[in-house]
Amino acid sequence: MSQLVLPVVLPLLAAFLLQPLSRVSGLAGRALGPLTLVLCAWITARLWLDFGGAPFSVAIGGFIPPLGIVFYADHLAFLFALAVPLFALLFWPELGDKGGGPGTDPNREARRDALVLLLVAATTGLALSGDLFNIYVFYELAAVASFGLVSLTGTARAQVATLRYLLISAFGSVLALVGISILYLQTGTLNLAQLSQLAPYTLQGPLGLAAFALMVIGFGVKAELFPLNTWVPEVYATAPARVAALLAGLVSKLAVLVVVRLLVLVFQQPEASQLLLVLGVLGVVTGELAAWRARDFPRMIAFSSIGQLGIVFIAFSIGGDIGLLAGIAVALHHLLVKSAFFGLAARWNGSLEGLAGAGRRAPLAAGLFVLFALSLIGVPPLLGFWTKILVLVGLAQGGAPLQLFALAAVLLATAVEANYLFRVALRLYGRADRPPAPPARWDLGAAAVLGVVLIGVSLAISPAADHLRQVARQAGDVALYVDTVFPKTLAGRD
Amino acid sequence: MTTSMTSSMTSLDHLLLVSALTVVAMLLIGRRRIAGPVSVVLYGAQFAALLATGTLFGEPVASSLVITVLDQPLHWRYDALSWFFAMITIGAGFCSAWYAAGAWMDRYRDQGHSPRLFHVALALNVFSMLLLLGSRDLLSLFLGWELVSWASFLMMALLGGLAFQAALRYLTYAFAGAMAVLGAMALIYSQVGSFELDPVVAALPGMSNGQIWLLLLLLGGGFAVKMGLLPFHLWQAAAYAESSGPASAFFGAISARMGLYAIVLVFVAGVGIARLTSMEVPFTFLSSRDLIAWIAALTVILPTYTALQQHDARYLLAWHGIGQGGYMLLGLMVGNAVGSAGGLLHVFNYAITQAALLMAVFAVVHRTGTADLNKLGGLVTRMPLTFLVLLFGIISLAGLPPMAGFVSKWMVYRSLVTEGMPLLFVAAIVGTLGTILSVYKLIHNIFLGQLRMEHVGCARPPCPC
To answer: Which chain B residues are within 8 Å of A461, Cβ to Cβ?
Structure first.
């Protein structure tokens, strides 16, 4: 079980080895990254298959929690820990890329690969960490890696976007750090399990809520949560498309996971959920309206991503097993769809007018776009419909005025979304003298794989829903979390 | 998706299977010339399968296909009302496919459009409507509703150019309506705990007037979009008129009636006219039933007089389509036997009429290349048969004896008078006056008067057989 640290440690190790190795042999340097990712995915998958459904925790270095730091593995953690290497592999920068562009210099290539590996290590760590200290460290590591990645193109616009990202991200980190310090002052621990034991006594009231608000807004920077999400459109529009796919699809989901763990384990007061709901609604409304006004494809899907993550937060704010189920479902669906969108956007990165006729040159890509768009706006019988109806029914059952307002906001935003996505779809099928270049074969392949997954899950929706319900139930079981990190034998001793 | 086939296949399964098979067949052979005749035969087979269900006078037939998702079953069942609408749907598909099978499709292909896409879109429209008409729970209703919307969108967008804009506008309206329906579904589920229609209908009497009003606004609003009721009608004329000929005829005949079917299913059969009558509109002397009836009456009048101002024959007929929907709803809102029968009969009569009219107009377009009423004239000498079709069609559309349209309109008028709604009766008559004026313009500007020089060489429209 202590192999659980390998998916975090191996990419770190590989990242450090990459520079020297690529000087010795360029081929080995290029192969090291993907191989490490495959190995990580394989280890995680095997552990997930072996662990038999009961969550377990690993005390790093044998130091017993709460003094030592822990990794905690349940279905939810495994789900995301497995998604990280798989998506990183799918959007690995140089796979299927036949030279050219800024990445031809081998030194530069090695640096870029090292950054992706760092990002992978950090996000896997976020999925598995069982204490706030580690979460903060991994979060910062992910931030640093992504700064380097988004400025890769080296253009002036990319530099400006990165600088803005850096400033906002640093501000968010400070907020999160203040929140964490409040927690530490109040409870004297950063272990999530111990925090959840102490929370009912020490974190009720305004101080606890303030800590939660600070951490949600702080960690929300990466999760594109309103209000610290103004970096999103510029960064996604100027960063390499695959990096944007990783950030929008994967990294944002891991930041969401952090917020969810905090919400479930530590902050169970209704005000915390309400805060999340309000921020989510604001995100949905602003994101979708901005996307509607956007005039180029990457910005449009970036704004739309803000809106979608708003729905994710709304779903988690519902609370209970149904809220968790809805939230995880929406998050996973968005992971599939938005990654594929950014993959397709690699060559379709000009203004929307410039996309005219692209569908005639690349029928498969345009077909995939339509498929993902249909699923994103929730057309039955595709997966997106079922995730959306989970959220809507959850909100309607909650029945509070604010929740009904959120329900109306989600529906309205979806109608707006349908308009702008299909404005693009029609343009793809229009006639033009000079249609844009079709997507690269690897990007198209990645999108096709995700499309097949989407259709597969849509067809097998019932078993998928049952599995996901199990995941949600386990993630929502606070007592299980505490018992796993502090086994009964230990609890019996004091 | 847990799919369970409970027992042996029922006659409804056969119908849906034949319809799905049509879609698949068109996907496979749609590119070839034989696809046209094959599709006509397949729609004929669907019609036979529908007759074989025998649900018009017999017992309702359920499909043995039940799909369970998230513990919620989706199932389908046909009763007399479904049969009636399905009969018109398949009939419209049959006629449109036949219309498209011959020379029209050759021209369409030569213009660089894809025959396969057209065939698939038409088959998909028919299939999704058949699904919608059988839905017996809100989930399958929504599934069918969305499928119909997207299939229509596909068929509208086939021609490109102006049709793209019209289709996008349709999509925006339809999707906003669908979202209202979805919101209503979530609210209903939180109240009733089920998506199935029978428990929902059973729970309706127990709901407060406020809740019914909310449903009326959300569901009724959503359904009204597809039907093209005021004030959600602005998308319809352009979307239907800019489609290709057979598609336009199909849309005009049946597509908008799916909204009417859903209104009948939920509000006439579910909530009930009596309940609607008992709900007062605050600060007025109107009940909710009066409100709907007046919306229907305004839907008759305003679009009909908009039709009068059109210079394009296609738009003129499409605007009429919106107005005629008002008569159907008006009859149903009267709610007595004669009124309801008149409203439903008008669905059938109008479908035949509108399809015939649009086919005649598009036959003219096929030969002359324009539907602009100011650039046509005197074609009666060149296309006498088309003239006759249009003549009979407009008599029926205007609701004059001895054509079918007269019968159903007369029933609606009669029920309005006997039920004591004279003002609505006057409104209906005013609408008819507008129809008479505008169809006169239609037939005169196309067929009567001076033949234009450029049309002297026009041949008769090709016979599609």
So the answer is: 1, 69-70
Q: Is A459 on the interface with B (CB under 8 A)?
A: yes
Give the Cα separation of B98 and B96 in Å (integer): 5
Nearest CA in chain B to A463: B1
Per CB-CB distance under 8 Å, the chain A contacts of B142 are 380
pLDDT-derived band at A319 (thresholds 50, 70, 90) equals confident
Give the pLDDT of residue B465: 55
Is the pLDDT at A101 greater than 50, yes or no?
Answer: no
Select the more confidently predicted residue: A432 or B366. Answer: B366
pLDDT in tens, A271-297: 889 999 999 999 999 999 998 888 888
Query: Rounded distance, CA A457 to CA A464, Å?
Result: 7
- Rounded CA-CA distance A184/A192 in Å is 11
Higher pLDDT, B54 or B185: B185
Closest CA to A219 of A184, A168, A267: A168
User: Would the CB atoms of B186 and A426 count as touching at under 8 Å?
Assistant: no
A430 → closest Cβ in B160, B172, B180: B160
Residue A246 in tokens: 């990783």
10 Å CB burial of residue B341 (0-12, 13-18, 19+) is middle
Statement: residue B462 has pLDDT above 60 = yes
Query: Which residue of chain A is at minimal alpha-carbon distance from B180?
Result: A411
| Å between B186 CA and nearest CA of chain A | 5
Least CA distance to B181: which residue of chain A?
A411
pLDDT score for A279: 92
| Gyration radius from chain A CA atoms | 22
A418 and B139 in contact by Cβ < 8 A?
no
Provide the token pair at B29. 């052979």
Peptide bond into B205 cis (omega under 30): no
Collect all residues of chain B within an 8 Å Cβ-Cβ radius of residue A458. 1
Structure confidence at residue A100 (pLDDT): 44
Closest Cα of chain A to B382: distance in Å?
A: 36
Find tokens 């139930």 and name the residue.
Answer: A473
Chain A residues touching B150 at Cβ < 8 A: 374, 379
- Residue A300 pLDDT > 80, yes or no? yes
pTM value is: 0.89
3-state secondary structure A53-84: CCCEEEEHHHCCCCCCCEEEECHHHHHHHHHH
Q: Within a 13 Å sphere around the CA of B224, how many CA atoms are in the beta-carbon half? A: 23
Alpha carbon distances (Å) from B73 to A396, A397, B100, B197, B210: 20, 20, 38, 11, 29
Q: Is the pLDDT score of B5 beyond 60?
A: no
Longest dimension (CA), chain B: 69
User: Residue B403: its pLDDT value, please?
Assistant: 86
Query: CB-based contact (8 Å) between A471 and chain B?
Result: no
Chain A: residue whose CA lies nearest to B186: A393
- Interface-testing mutation among B68, B175, B191, with chain A (most A C-beta atoms within 10 A): B175
How many whole angstroms separate alpha carbon B220 and alpha carbon B291? 12
